[in-house]
Write a structure and sequence with these properties.
Layout lengths: L1 H45 L24 H25 L14 H18 L6 H4 L2 H21 L3 H4 L1 H25 L2 E4 L6 H12 L2 H13 L16 H18 L1 H4 L2 H18 L13 H22 L4 E4 L8 E2 L2 E2 L6 H19 L10
Antiparallel strand pairs: 1-2, 3-4
Helix pairs in contact: 1-7, 1-10, 1-12, 1-14, 3-5, 5-9, 7-8, 7-14, 9-13, 10-12, 12-14, 13-14
C-alpha cells in the first residue's frame, strides 16, 4: 500500500514537473503574440493615428507608394545586411565541410517522389495560363511547398538516415498549425509597413481569404526546419569565437524589440526592418526569462550552428519562395521605402537580408513548439 502510494506520488510529481515547461512555453507564445500585436498600436497612438483600421482580421494587404529610391538609404540599409552575409559566407567557406554521402542502396521513399511530383505539377500550373481556372491556380503555393517539404525530407532521410518528418514527427506536424498563426502575425505587422501586397487572388470573402492564407502560411516553419536539417547533412560548422552575453542581455533585448515594434507604428518609413528583428528579440528574451533555455545557448561555447544553419536555410527557402512566386498567377509584390531597386525576381536585392534573422526566428519558434509537444522539450537534436 505504502509502495503504491509512493509510486503514485512520484508519477504526479513527475507529471507536474513535465507540465511546467509546457505551461511556460505557452506563456512565452501568448506573451510574444500579445506584445507583437499591441506595440505597433501603441506607436500609432503616440503618433496620434487611429487604430481601428488595423484591427480587422484577417488583415488585408494593399499597394502603397513609399519614399523614392535614395542612395543614402540604400547604403545605410545595405551595411548590416552585407555584414551578415559576409559572416555567413565566411563561416561556410572557412569552417564548413561536407557531411556523409548518400547511404549505398538507400532508395528515395515513395513520398519523396510524390513531393517531387507535387512541386513539378504545382510549378507548371502556377506559371501556365489556361491549364486550370484561376480559382484553382491561386492555391498552387500550398501544393508546391507541401511537395518541397516531402521531397527535402526524403532526400535528407536518404542521405543521413534521419529527417524531421520521420524522426520527430509529432513535433514536425505541430509546426504546421503554429506556422499558420505565426505568419498571420507578420501579415498583421505588414499593415503598418505596407512592404508587400498580393495580386491575382481575386476578391475572396473573409472566410475564404482566411482559409487560402492559412493553407499557404502553414508551410513556412516546416519548410525552413526541413531545409535546415538537409543543410546539416552537407555542411558541419566548426567552433568559432564564443559569444557570452552579459547578465541582463535578455531584458535589453526585450526593451529593444519592444521599442522597435512600437517604432514601426510611429515611423514605418524608417523602421520597417524592425518587422523582422523586433519579434526575434522579444521571443528570444521571453524564452530565456521564462524557460531559462534557448537554442542560441551553444554560442557561448563557440557553436554558431544555431544561427548559421537557420539563416542559410531561410535564405535558400527565400530564394525558392521568390522564384516560384515570380511567374505565378497569385503572387506578392514588394514596395520598400527608399531601396526599391536591383530586383532578384520580385524582391529588391536588399530584402533578402531579412531572411537571415527570419530563419533564426523560425528555429526559436520551433524550439518552443518542442517544449509543448516533446517530453522535456528540446532545442535541437544533436546540440
Amino acid at each position: 500500500m505504502g509502495c503504491n502510494t509512493t509510486a503514485q506520488t512520484r508519477r504526479r510529481d513527475g507529471g507536474a514537473a513535465a507540465g511546467e515547461p509546457r505551461r511556460r512555453a505557452v506563456l512565452v507564445l501568448v506573451a510574444t503574440a500579445a506584445l507583437v500585436w499591441a506595440l505597433p498600436l501603441g506607436g500609432l497612438l503616440l503618433a496620434g493615428q487611429p487604430v481601428a483600421p488595423y484591427l480587422e482580421f484577417p488583415p488585408r494587404t494593399q499597394a502603397v507608394a513609399h519614399a523614392p529610391f535614395s542612395w543614402v538609404a540604400f547604403v545605410l540599409v545595405a551595411a548590416p545586411g552585407l555584414a551578415a552575409f559576409g559572416l555567413l559566407g565566411w563561416a561556410i567557406e572557412r569552417n564548413g565541410r561536407h557531411g556523409p554521402a548518400s547511404a549505398p542502396g538507400r532508395a528515395l521513399r515513395w513520398w519523396g517522389w510524390l513531393g517531387i511530383a507535387l512541386v513539378a505539377a504545382g510549378w507548371t500550373v502556377a506559371w501556365s495560363e489556361g491549364v486550370l481556372p484561376s480559382e484553382l491556380r491561386r492555391h498552387t503555393f500550398s501544393v508546391i511547398w507541401l511537395g518541397y517539404i516531402l521531397a527535402i525530407n526524403a532526400v535528407t532521410l536518404r542521405r543521413a538516415g534521419a529527417c524531421p518528418l520521420v524522426d520527430r514527427r509529432r513535433w514536425f506536424l505541430a509546426l504546421f498549425p503554429v506556422s499558420a498563426a505565426f505568419w498571420w502575425l507578420f501579415e498583421y505587422l505588414n499593415q503598418f509597413t505596407d512592404n508587400w501586397h498580393y495580386v491575382g487572388i481575386g476578391t475572396p470573402g473573409r472566410a475564404a481569404y482566411l482559409v487560402q492564407g492559412t493553407l499557404a502560411f502553414a508551410t513556412v516553419l516546416p519548410a525552413v526546419e526541413s531545409t535546415r536539417a538537409w543543410l546539416a547533412t552537407h555542411v558541419s560548422f566548426r567552433p568559432l569565437r564564443p559569444v557570452r552575453l552579459p547578465e541582463g542581455a535578455a531584458w535589453l533585448a526585450l526593451g529593444a524589440g519592444a521599442a522597435a515594434l512600437a517604432g514601426i507604428g510611429h515611423w514605418p518609413e524608417i523602421l520597417y526592418p524592425a518587422l523582422w528583428v523586433g519579434p526575434l528579440a522579444i521571443l528570444c528574451a521571453l524564452q530565456f526569462l521564462l524557460l531559462r533555455a534557448s537554442p542560441l545557448a551553444p554560442l557561448a561555447r563557440g557553436d554558431w550552428r544555431p544561427v548559421l544553419e537557420p539563416a542559410a536555410a531561410a535564405l535558400l527557402c527565400g530564394l525558392l519562395w521568390e522564384l516560384w512566386n515570380y511567374g505565378s498567377h497569385a503572387k506578392w509584390l514588394y514596395s520598400i521605402p527608399a531601396v526599391q531597386r536591383f530586383h532578384l525576381f520580385e524582391m529588391p536585392l536588399l530584402g533578402y537580408a531579412g531572411y537571415l534573422p527570419f530563419g533564426v526566428l523560425c528555429v526559436v519558434m520551433g524550439d518552443i513548439v518542442a517544449h509543448l509537444v516533446q517530453r522535456g522539450g528540446s532545442a535541437s537534436p544533436g546540440r
